[in-house]
Specification:
The protein is an alpha+beta fold. 49% of the residues lie in helices and 20% in strands. It has a domain of 145 residues: 2-Layer Sandwich (Alpha-Beta Plaits), CATH 3.30.70.270. The strands form 2 sheets. Strands 2-1-5-4-3 form a 5-stranded antiparallel beta sheet, with helices on both faces. Strands 7-8-6-9 form a 4-stranded antiparallel beta sheet, sandwiched between helices.
Length: 339
């Protein structure tokens, strides 16, 4: 890109061409002094441009790179001579190019713009940047002065925070808040049928009391791994309590819910065969809601069926469940100390 002194010199030349000769003679020395001052200023600002800690890029209206500073060379891992032969398509990832095009249109219509884009380096690696631009005139043409500021770490932290808001940190499954929000979405969207499976880890209090909370935590993580193996990617598996899990199956009628339960039981059996200690034992129950059903009621029904399953079992070494007489009302297991 030509230096800024060229622009100023052209402006002075334009002013001089319209002035009377006598005025030119009287003002010639002042013009010369002014041009020298501008040249000094140009050197000063060019130095600032090159030494700035942000990445500066000059674009033309077509998105071609006209000039870059040293920090931009470092950011994009290309030499100055390479960069000024490129366009925005070469430094902006295809996933973000629509945002870049909108940024350019807005800048050239309003005089300024900003956005966040995913950039690409010469080796194909990517990074996020905050992009801000201001329009300026040079040589009778409009150019865009753009500042790229890398925000990859900020985006990573934002992504991690979003993950934590929706996931249980111990098991990596969705948390109760996310599960309840998904139920609300399905009810608002009237997406039916919907099946819900409730799962409870048997004997958690006994494990925590006799083997410690670390053993209890490991048992919960094993239960989460079994759930991941058993359900579809579109199903929502969540830890909704200390030792309680729930799975939301959008579009699944009672038949598909039974198939899902069969997969779950098969996964549990395979896991038990590996002789992990403490042993994993799960109580499960399901229910299905059809058009017009309240999913809160479906959840309660699945929870009740899960407790019936728990109370119908023969007592095993890792469970504190006792068989009740047929028809006896189900009672909740002792509260878990699981985190």
């Amino acid at each position: 890109m030509k230096t800024f002194s060229f622009v100023r010199a052209m402006k002075y030349a334009q002013e001089l061409s319209c002035a009377p000769v006598s005025w030119l003679l009287n003002r010639g020395h002042r013009t010369s002094r002014k041009l020298k001052q501008n040249k000094v200023a140009d050197v000063k600002y060019k130095k600032i441009f090159d030494l700035a800690m942000d990445s500066f890029v000059i674009f033309d209206k077509e998105g071609n790179l006209l000039d870059v500073n040293a920090h931009a060379e470092k950011m994009f891992e290309r030499q100055h001579g390479q960069l000024i032969k490129l366009s925005g398509k070469d430094i902006v990832h295809p996933d973000s190019y629509t945002f870049f095009e909108r940024f350019m249109r807005e800048a050239f219509s309003r005089g300024h713009s900003k956005c966040e884009v995913l950039n690409v380096r010469q080796d194909g690696s990517t990074f996020y940047s905050d992009l801000r631009g201001t329009l300026f005139e040079h040589g009778g043409r409009l150019h865009l002065f753009a500042i790229f500021r890398e925000i990859t770490e900020l985006k990573r932290m934002e992504k991690w925070n979003r993950y934590l808001m929706a996931h249980d940190p111990l098991t990596g499954l969705y948390n109760r808040a996310y599960f309840e929000e998904e139920i609300s979405k399905l009810e608002r969207g009237r997406v039916f049928p919907v099946s819900i499976i409730m799962i409870d880890v048997d004997g958690m209090k006994l494990i925590n009391d006799t083997k410690g909370h670390r053993a209890g935590d490991e048992l919960l993580r094993r239960a989460a791994r079994v759930l991941r193996m058993s359900f579809r990617s579109e199903d929502v598996a969540a830890r909704i309590g200390g030792d309680e899990f729930a799975v939301l199956l959008p579009g699944a009628d009672s038949g598909r819910a039974k198939e899902a339960l069969s997969r779950l039981h098969h996964s549990i059996a395979n896991y038990k065969s590996k002789q992990h200690e403490p042993r994993l034992s799960l109580s499960v129950g399901s229910a299905t809601g059809y058009q017009g059903a309240h999913l809160s009621k479906v959840l309660e029904e699945a929870d009740m069926n899960m407790y019936r399953d728990k109370l119908s079992r023969t007592r095993d070494p890792d469970s504190r469940v006792t068989r009740l007489p047929q028809g006896a009302p189900p009672q909740a297991e002792e509260s878990s100390d699981a985190p």
